[in-house]
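Section 3.1 - Work completed
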Amino acid sequence: MLSRKSLPLLAVCSVLAPLILALLVPGPVTVIILGVWGAAAATAGVEMTRRHAEKENAAMRRALEETANTAFNHHRHDWMNDLQVLYGYIRMGKHDKSAEYVERIKERAVQDSRISKLGIPALIFYLHSFRVNSHSLRLEVSVEDQLQLGAVMSPEDGESLALAVRDTVQAYQCGVGRSSWGEVRSLNLYFGMDQGDVIVRFEGSDLPADSEMLMQVRARLENQSLRMEQLPSGQTFQIRVPCQT
């Protein structure tokens, strides 16, 4: 399949035939033919590029819509499970269990709301859709109250942070040995502020500091305002981003 970059090149190359003809048989007629052919090739190249871009955008839009729909169905399924569990507690008269479960639901709803207010669309979408795309890792996300990253960092830093979070989580997924049968590993993420900086803390076991993928993430952050730090515990890492002043 032709790439978008190859389409203008193909159109330019098509001008070679009339150009060779103009060199072999010079004259006003061949010059006119060359001019008309060149204009037609340029128009065709622009149109082909436009159509190819439309097809790529449509494919990306369909993929995004499918992921969003799957994520919505997954959350709806979780809520139905919660209602069934809560209904069971109520029917059995276990009011203490019911109250405890309601508090768990409320806490998860609060965290989901805080994630939605982070202000970085790519990061928000990734965190909300993670459960749909991963079945071997449970991501527990905690967000400091009133934290809005979009208000304290540039859009460029926001995009870099979203990418760094995704790559670090992926490093944890792929950089450790296989879990035992039926085991689901857990990774805790904390978003907050520390000494005027935004921090994203990753806490989980079996995440070696010399992981190749983790080292690649660190290398990509070297020339950016973001930096990755390893905390004294040895199994906790955090990304630090200076806030805009």
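Second construct:
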Amino acid sequence: MTDPSGAMDAMELPRRVAARLNLLFEAVRPAALQRPWTSEEAAERAGVDLGYVEALRAGTLPPPEVDPPIDQGQREKLFAQRLDCLFRTRLSPRTGKRVTQTEVAQALQTNKQHVGNLRNGKNNPSIVLAQKYADFFEVDVGYFCADPLSAVAACFGHAKEFLVLADDDPYVVRATADLRLLRAMADRRVRKVVGRLVDRYEASAGDPAGEPGADPGADPDADPAGSGSPPPGPRG
């Protein structure tokens, strides 16, 4: 028989990662979105499979698959995968549309075909070239070879250690407190906005004229603003 306590201990890492990753999703709101990321958006930005992110958040991955090792063959493919992810998710500051291979080629003083070969995994870049791509897309050069869990954590501005270290680790304690504060502040802002909308709705619903924004104390015979017409006088 399987020891229940042993089974619980074995799943401690997936549960820990799930709790902290979900806290990151709740607390961190990218400025461009003004809302939390979805699992799909985080997966695209990290250059990992959506199923991996969803399983991390659910805490259902076996411990060895939470932070899987990467062999040299996989690492060589990562650059192409992550570069393609950047092309699919980043917008050009010049056009406001997705970055094109032509635009990158011009910026890096190379040709479009070479950019395409790197993106398709036909060529592998040198360290110097990888740094140029990192500078262009404003990411750390380690993004191109980071393991999946590190890439996911980096989306939220944290290192992988935040997800895996013990609860009493000083880094985890500080980061958790900061994230809970951010989440509370975001929740208060949302409640404030919703409260204002409810107040406006209730005010319009209580309007005796039945028209939103109408002044209940206004004289019904008063001249509407800007009409220029006097109120009707007594009939002769």
